[in-house]
Amino acid sequence: MKLFEYEAKKILANYGVPTPNGGLAENSKEACEIASRLKPPFMVKAQVLVAGRGKAGGILSAVSVSEVEEKAEKLFSSKIKGLPVRKVWIEEKINIKRELYFGVTTDRLHKTYVAVASSVGGMEIEEVAEKAPEKIIKFYINPQRGFHSFHARQIAKKMGYKDGQLTKLERIFLGLYKAGMDYDAELIEMNPLVETMDGEFKAADARIIIDDNALFRHQNFKKRMLEGESELTPQEVEAIKNGLAYVKLNGNIGVIGNGAGLVMATLDTIKYYGGEPADFLDVGGGASSEKIAAALKIVLLDPNVKTLFINILGGITRCDEVARGILKAREKVGVIKPMVIRLVGTNEEEGKQILTKAGIHVLESMEEAAKKAVQLTKQREV
Amino acid sequence: MPIIVNEKTKAIVQGITGKQGSFHTKLMLQYGTKIVAGVTPGKGGMKIEGVPVYDTVEEALEKHEADASIIFVPAPFAADAALEALENGIKTIVIITEHIPIKDAITVMEFAKQQKAIIIGPNTPGIITPEECKLGIMPAHIFRKGSVGIISRSGTLTYEIAASLTKNGFGQSTCLGLGGDPITGLNFIDVLEMFKEDKQTKAVVLIGEIGGNLEELAAEYISRENYPKPVVAFIAGRTAPPGKRMGHAGAIIMGKAGTAQTKIETLRNAGVEIAEKPSDVAKLLLEIVH
User: Is residue A243 helix, strand or coil?
Assistant: First the structure.
């Protein structure tokens, strides 16, 4: 789960990381009030959960309180990369001597956390890694020993700092690491971390992504996500509430299956035969008929869906349960779109019988079924 | 000799009294797996499918000999269960549980490294050596004893491909699910090494998906080592958009990294045969045999 910039900055500030003075506004009047308490010039920043916000016009500067009002108004009435702006963060503009990068993320291969620092900040760190790999310092954190002051000093030293600045960076790096651990961050970064003209350091932008699987330890954020204030679409939130994994795509064949790999392969197979999947929906293992019904409902919310392709390979999922779920959903939601169903595995015969009796044709091969789904969709396109 | 588990493997089940734990204990016993004890804190003294239940792993191991554990404990407590098994000296641990926090997984993997133990998972269907031992939740009837080793990041997709192999006359030596999470105990290279040494395994099927670079590293390893056995791969997620988690916590394209296209290209350059569709895996194996 992605946190907003203002949340990330508040968390970092609590861990001793200096951030620019600022405040959060929900309308332009509030923006004005906040600005009048701050020292000009100002930055007016849309709080939206997309990368590349600056380039998309989501970060504006202002020299006076009245200009803050104007710029805030502009952001509140615009969309940044398609997202509406509900909150705007107003802060004091900092004078920049140098932009740095520091972050902590997880590393799959080393199975641990890695601290990443760079004397080139302000752009995507992946971009730096590509263009100037020598400017990147990586330190793999031993999960048992952790990240200590001396590690932080070693990194600051490698970045070319000494004296008082070395110890200032030490405290900032350590603070960020501790915040990351306490909040179960799979990514926590300051980009840029700014060195100011007077030799201070401030996190000008901050990003935290909390590990979704750890949200049970961070109930306030989990609640916010389920209430719909997150990077997720309403269908994705509905899916999470029902224990389903849903991703919307741009095609017109609605896809439901069990198991992430199988569903991904189903999408690929549809594409292989010339079709376009409308979504990825994984009902997971052992799905009940209620879950199948919820899945159908979510997929059918997408008006682009012309046909449905349900691909179930029953291991712990029972085919008869799936069949009942499909009928239940048809009754409730009134599924009038053509369906192609592939159903094999545990209690296959029973499942097939239930569906065949209801007039629904069941196929055995995933590839045949994909072909059929593409065919049906093409007919409906004409 | 297959890899990691065989007819002699003796296992305990942690979380044996739960819905999944008890159901799969029954199926594993039916398959012939030697389940010697179960552990659920607070449920000691019970019996599940005739298997005695203990409160702690320590107590279970005082009464029974076991070299493996399979964990069905809910995500918030699963790391604790794995650490308990490790501290009590168990060297093969299968973690079925999905949704374990990354921080917890990291702690488990570090301790496993010290204890020189193998962790399969988390978020895995487990491991099966057909007709000998099943430590997992996979439907048993689709597997046959044979000479193809399967390493996979996915559950149902493995069943899809294993079933089609069996249908086409290719049995399996061992099938192992690495797990769908970003941090797992084993990676492709670890298991490729084991299959290299295993006499029963004549060919390897690698089932990958988007996210991370374990497939790319496997490709490097295969070409560097001039891997002596044929490898066929299927990679899921060619149509996955960047920045979205496709069901598995580990299945996500970050920026330009982790796409199916890069994985396919790197594997192909290493001499691995790439299946375009799941059913092509068996076709490619047939071509290699002939």
Answer: coil
CATH number for the domain running over A234-381: 3.40.50.261
| Closest C-alpha among B80, B30, B34 to residue B57 | B80
Restricting to B residues 143-202, those with a Cβ less than 8 Å away from any Cβ of A are 152-160, 163, 180, 182-183, 187
Domain residue spans in chain A? 21-92, 96-220, 234-381
Q: Do B156 and A257 touch (CB under 8 A)?
A: yes
Token digits of residue A204: 């000008």
Helix (H, G, I), strand (E, B) or coil at B10: strand
Distance, in Å, from the CA atom of B243 to the CA atom of A239, rounded to the nearest integer, reads 18
Reported ipTM: the value is: 0.92
Reported as a pLDDT band with limits 50, 70 and 90, residue A381 is confident
Residue A346's pLDDT band (boundaries 50, 70, 90)? confident
A96-220: in CATH 3.30.470.20: yes
- Position A127 scores a pLDDT of 83
Q: Which pLDDT does position A191 carry in this prediction?
A: 94
Give the residue with greater pLDDT, A112 vs A287.
Answer: A112
| Residues of chain A above pLDDT 90, percent | 74
pLDDT at A227: 84
Q: Which two tokens stand for residue A90?
A: 């107003």
DSSP-H helix ranges across chain A? 5-14, 28-37, 65-76, 125-131, 149-158, 163-182, 219-226, 234-241, 260-272, 289-300, 319-333, 348-357, 366-381
Chain B contact set for A214 (CB, 8 A)? 101-103
Domain A21-92 adopts which CATH fold?
Dna Ligase; domain 1 (3.30.1490)
The answer to whether B39 touches B57, Cβ cutoff 8 Å, is yes
The per-residue pLDDT for B47 is 97
Alpha-carbon span B284 to B275, nearest angstrom: 7
Strand order in the sheet with A245-248: A245-248, A279-282, A253-257, A307-314, A339-345, A362-363
Nearest to B139 among A257, A264, A315 (CB): A315
Q: What is the pLDDT of residues B55-92, one digit of tens each?
A: 999 999 999 999 999 999 999 999 999 999 999 999 99
- pLDDT < 50 positions in chain B: none
Q: Do A216 and A243 touch, CB atoms closer than 8 A? A: no
Is the Cβ of A368 closer than 8 Å to some Cβ of chain B?
Answer: no
Burial of B226 (0-12, 13-18, 19+ CB in 10 A): exposed
- Which part of chain B is CATH 3.40.50.261? 138-289
Homologous superfamily of B138-289? Succinyl-CoA synthetase domains (3.40.50.261)
Q: How many CB pairs under 8 A join A and B?
A: 172
- In tens, the pLDDT along A131-160 reads 888 899 999 999 999 999 999 999 999 999
Residues of chain B with CATH 3.40.50.720: 10-120
Assign a CATH topology to domain B10-120.
Answer: Rossmann fold (3.40.50)
Q: What is the pLDDT of residue A59?
A: 96
The three-state DSSP-derived secondary structure of A320-350 is HHHHHHHHHHHHHHCCCCCEEEEEEECCHHH
Q: Which contacts (CB < 8 Å, 24+ apart) does range B23-27 have?
A: B23/A316, B24/B70, B24/B72, B24/B96, B24/B136, B24/B137, B25/B49, B25/B51, B27/B134, B27/B137, B27/B140
Q: Pairing state of beta strands A22-25 and A88-92?
A: antiparallel
A261 touches chain B (CB under 8 A): yes
What is the per-residue pLDDT across A175-221, written as a single tens digit (0 to 9) for each? 999 999 999 999 999 999 999 999 999 999 999 999 999 999 999 99
Which pLDDT score, from 0 to 100, does residue B1 have? 65
